[in-house]
Structures are given as C-alpha cells and as structure tokens.
Amino acid sequence: MNALLAACLVLPLASGTSPAAVRACGGHPLDFDGDGRPDLAVAAPYDDVRAGSVTVMYGNGKKVKLTQGDGAERGDSFGSALAVGDFNGDKCADLAVGVSEEFAGERVSGGDGNGVVQLFDGSVDGLVKGKELAPAKPSSDRFGASLAAGDLDGDGRDELAVGAPSHRSGGAVTVYWMKGSKPYQITQKTRWVRQRAGVTDQWGASLATGDFDGDGRDELAVGAPADSVRLDGQGSVTVIDVRARRARQLTQSSPGIKGASEKWDAFGASLATGDFNGDGKSDLAIGVPGEGITKNQRALDYGDGTVDVLYGSRSGLRTDKTEAWSQNSLDGKPRYYDRFGASLAAGDFNGDGRDELAIGVPGERAVQVLQGRSSGGLTRVGNLLIKGKGRDFGASLAVLPLAERYRPLERRRPLHALVVAAPDQGLVMYAPGSRKPGLRMGKVRQLSKGSGLYGYAFG
Questions:
Q1: How far apart are alpha carbons 90 and 3 in whole angstroms?
Q2: How many Cα atoms occupy the beta-carbon half-sphere of 166 within 13 Å?
Q3: In what order do the strands lie in the sheet with 396-401?
Q4: Are 178 and 217 a contacting pair, CB within 8 Å?
Q5: Which one, of 302, 420, 324, 411, lies nearest residue 366 by Cα?
Q6: Please, is 232 exposed, middle or buried when counting C-beta atoms within 10 Å of its C-beta (0-12, 13-18, 19+)?
Q7: Which letter, b or e, does each residue of 77-110 get, where b requires 16 or more Cβ atoms within 10 Å of its Cβ?
Q8: Start-to-end C-alpha separation, the chain
Q9: What is the DSSP code string of 316-369?
Q10: Could you count the other beta carbons within 10 Å of the beta carbon of residue 241?
C-alpha cells in the first residue's frame, strides 16, 4: 500500500529546500499540508450506515479518515461531493465536503435532505475541521450534492459554488466568498438567468469552473441533466459569469453544437474543464450518458452515451467548432447501457503541455482517453480504452500529479496520473502517464480499497 502511494502521490522535494520552507504552504491547489506533495481525498458517502466518510491520503503516505464527528447521523451521506480550493487565501488547499442528505430537524423517511457543506481548512499540520455552510432557508434541497471551486472574481482566492439540485425552483447554486458580496444564490428564475424552470430539472446537479475567455477570472458551468427545455430530460448546461451577471444556456439544440436533443439524453450529467489545444483558455467537456446510439432504446433506460466538447476563445466558449465523441469513432464499440460520458476528467498524461480528456464508460468497465494537440484540440488518433476491475470501473475519475516536482520555478511540464474508481466495490485504481511520444498510460494498479461507495467522489 505505501509503495503504491509513493509511486502515485509522493513527490521529490526541490533540492536545497530547508525544513522550515517545507512547513509553509506553497499555494499548490492539491496540497493540504504544505509539504510539497499532492494529496488525495476519497469520498465514501454510504460508509457507516450511510453517515459517510472521507479518506485523505497525504503525499507522505499518511491516511486520515474524516467524518462529521458528533454530528454524524445515519443517512447523512457525508462525502456526497468534494471540492478543493484555497478559500481563505493562506496558500494551503482547503477541502469542502458535501453532506447533501443531512436534515436540519427530524429526518423525513424517504425524503430528500436539506443538506450542509462541511469545510476543512488546510494547514501545515494537515486538514482541520472548519465552519459549516447551510442554506438560509432549509428545504428538501440536497444542498451540497455538487461542489466546484474557482476564482470567479479574479482576486486570487477561490470561491465555492454549492449545488442544490432539488431546490424547489428546480435547482439552485449558491456562490460563497465573492469579493464584496454575501453568499449569492442563483436559480433559473434569477433575473439575469431568465430560464424556464421545472421542479425536476436538477439545475446544479453538476458543476465545473474554467476561464473560457482568458480574462483571468473563472466562469461557472452549471449542469441540469433533467432539464426539459423542449423535450423531457434532454438536459442543459448554463455557463455563468458570476461577477458580470451574465448567463448562457447550451443544449444539443443550440446552433453549432453537434448532436440533437432527445428525450432523457441527460446532457450535462457530468462536466470537466481543461486546455485541450494549449491556447491558455479553458475548454469544456459535457457528458451526455443517456444519448441513445443503439436502435430501439427505451425511454429512461441507460444510453450508449456521447461527450460534447466546446473550445474557449476571447469571446468565451465557441459553438461553431464543437465536437461530439462516441465509441462509433474510437476504440471500443457503443453498447446499450455503456453510459459513455458518465464521468469526465482532464489532465496532461504525456507532459506536452496540453490536456487529455478521460471519459468514464462504467457500463463497459472502462475509461476512454483522448489526446490533446495544438492543432484542433482533441484527436481520435492513438486514443486508449483502459479496462479495470469492478462492475462500475470508470464511474468516477480524477487526475493527480505523478512523480514530479510542482514548484513554481520548475521548468518541466507536469505529468499526471489518472485515478479511477469502481465505487460499487470500493476500489480506487490509478494509471500513470508517460512522457513517451503519443499517448501511453501505465498499467492500472490498485491504490486503495474501502466500503460504503468508496471512490464515489474525489477531491
């Protein structure tokens, strides 16, 4: 176990680094304890009769299990979502943990939770329990079912977006710590969003942040996989500039976006941002796991799945050169129930400075990886289909720096490993990247194992 952690997590420190310097946080977004090594948080929301837990694997090999402590109750689902960012500006990475099924009062049998978010502050001694965030007017919101961190106002400190997809308006997102602003709730009915809202839309079920226009401030992408814009459950994604209070809705019916909206496509069920063409602007990958390619797909059944990709530009995400990926054009074969695109992650697996896109295919127990390039972005050339253990291998994904120094003065481009979970069996595995030409990944190895949907989410 420790050997595997060392291979994936433990990074060599810069030569000449003094012990005192090691104990100061260096501002890397994946370092909870400031020791110069990336750390990984793994959620198990069904652990301990669904009270939930989060296991933190520090880069030095130490493991710590986080819970709500005295506040833990059956069914709370501590770890329903995770997000990492520097929320207090001390250059230590902090961890936000969603507890979407917690009730403010008595538990309602069979009802959705009110939800809270528990913060853990990074420090030179590791994560320390911080304050708790809760909705101003608790309802069956599932507040904390999704989370995302990003610098939305350009002040150098991360904000936290909290999704509440069961909010009575059809879903809501609350943004914390915008400069000069109190916690700010956004819904489809917000004046400057101006969308038709349905109570089952699940607006805010998925979240991602990225600087799509290169202005130094992140935008927020909000997925609503059950949004019935024109057709039942077709799904939508809303791209929001929170500071400027501008919103733009995207669907498969939007001009230029490849594919066509159909019932129960679940467009926006997963989101990931990365720079696939190396132009310095974030690109957006949108999972459509309900997309039916196999003929005679029945309503509400799982689909073969597709992924749409939009590229950033000075004016934001472009829709004139979008891509639609499926296994029709890649290694592998699309099949009923594959759910291609159920999970997404972006990272540089070959060290060329451009991100690759990892696509979960849990129905096939696989992950598809597409290579990024400077001319045109993602390419099918050399794509990989990675198989692993577990009935739902690929249900959740993450990336992590691999055996590289990430000091600011380091000239060599970072190299990432792919972290993959099969939460139904509690397996977390990883495949290291390689600097060899093209796209090559190392052998899939088991990193850790747990219970209670261990690996449901990563931070």
A1: 31
A2: 15
A3: 396-401, 416-422, 427-432, 445-449
A4: no
A5: 420
A6: middle
A7: bbbbbbbbbbbeebebbbbbbbbbbbbeeeeeee
A8: 20
A9: S--STT-EEE-TTSSSS---TT--TTSSEEEE-SSSSSS-EEEEEEGGGTEEEE
A10: 19
Positive/negative CA dihedral, 33, 35, 41, 47: negative
- Within 10 angstroms of residue 138's Cβ, the number of other Cβ atoms is 16
- The conformational region for residue 266 under phi > 0 = left, psi -120 to 50 = alpha, else beta, is left
Pairing of strands 270-274, 246-250: unpaired
Q: Which two tokens stand for residue 75?
A: 């069914």
Q: How far apart are CA 405 and CA 402, in angstroms?
A: 9
Query: At CA 43, angle to CA 41 and CA 45, rounded to 5?
Result: 160
Give 248-293 pLDDT, tens digit per residue: 999 999 999 988 888 989 999 999 999 999 999 999 999 999 998 8
Sign of CA dihedral 376, 377, 380, 381: positive
Please check whether residue 31 is in contact with residue 56, taking contact to mean a CB–CB distance below 8 angstroms: no
Residue type, 439: L
What are the pLDDT digits (tens) for 354-366?
999 999 999 999 9
HSE-CB at 46 with a 13 A cutoff on CA atoms is: 11
Cα–Cα dist 43/41, whole Å:
7
Model confidence over 3-56: pLDDT tens digits?
Answer: 444 445 543 333 333 333 445 787 788 999 998 889 999 999 999 999 999 999
| 308/97 Cα distance (integer angstroms) | 28
| Contact between residue 2 and residue 447 where contact means Cβ atoms under 8 Å apart | no
* Bridge partner list, 172: 164, 187
Closest CA to 210 of 269, 288, 135, 279: 279
Beta partners for 369? 358, 384
